[in-house]
Amino acid sequence: MVRNPPSAVLVRRDLRSAPLLAAARGESPEHIPVWFMRQAGRSLPEYRALRAGSGMLQACLTPDLTCEITLQPVRRHGVDAAILFSDIVIPLYIAGVGVDIVPGTGPVVAEPVRTMADVDRIPALHPDQVAPVAEAITLLLRELGETPLIGFAGAPFTLASYLVEGGPSRNHERTKALMRSAPEVWHALMGRLAESTSVFLRAQIDAGVDAVQLFDSWVGALSDRDYRAYAQPHSARVLTGLADTGVPRIHFGVGTGELLGAMAEAGADVVGVDWRIPLDEAARRTGGTHPVQGNLDPAVLFADQPSIEAEARRIVDEGRRTPGHVFNLGHGVLPATDPDVLTRLVELVHSLRP
Q1: Which of 3, 13, 42, 276 is catalytic?
Q2: pLDDT tens across 193-222, in order?
Q3: Exposure on the CB side of residue 130, measured as CA atoms within 13 A
Q4: Is 202 exposed, middle or buried (0-12, 13-18, 19+ CB in 10 A)?
Q5: Is 87 a catalytic residue?
Q6: How far is CA 84 from the centre of its chain?
């Protein structure tokens, strides 16, 4: 595995008492930590103003812009963590893969990967190519004070799905066909993606992030059997390969209620849970040893305030019956969400007993 050399000048912030990191270790924080996936994004008017005229990939690779976007929800909502503003295709893009983010569609790949020759032409990611992201992290560490910063990457399966399908897919038919009909091509592709993801996350850790999240958008399309055969070994390579860093590793996927046990076995410290399963049941499925993250349905934020509060209280109650709880949504903040609703939700969760 290619690794970034440790920074000779980085002095990591001592945030051992930060609620997010305490909960990730299974300890009792002073209050329930809360942050939101996609908390920096289209729900914030200040984000839309700042992003006007710049593309997504450009924003993710412009350090001062990345820094400001990452800080916006921390200032507005008072969340317990910043999540690095990025996109799952960034490591592919900076390595030289022909990928673009098309508004209204998502990632689109110029030349889909279907053969071993296609896999062979995927360039490796080198640590020096991650420099713009590392620079943004350096800027953020100066501004965040005692607020932890979470690094971010897409998991190998989701990246592979985009590469094989050529873009977003509802059924992942080409992906599943390649897995079964050409397993040697599939595993070669996944191995290459696991390597680049590892380089990308380690570069973020070396730059100073306090935790990382491996995000698997599409892995819920797999059965438990297929996940264990075709995806888990490669996610495990990423997660276990970062064990020596000492930073908490969060693993989240969408529609993964039946995969939670296998996802925990892949090497995560914290398992993210979407809204389809109660947190205490999720903790049981992960063996009763892993803190959990989640899991308010993002659509609930469009309900009236009493309904939102009732759901939040239910989730907090379920979280008390787990080895540790980081309050979050069960997926990302929806673009039309009222930011004031998020702010009130943070205040409510902070007011509740851990």
Answers
A1: 42
A2: 999 999 999 999 999 999 999 999 999 999
A3: 29
A4: buried
A5: yes
A6: 9
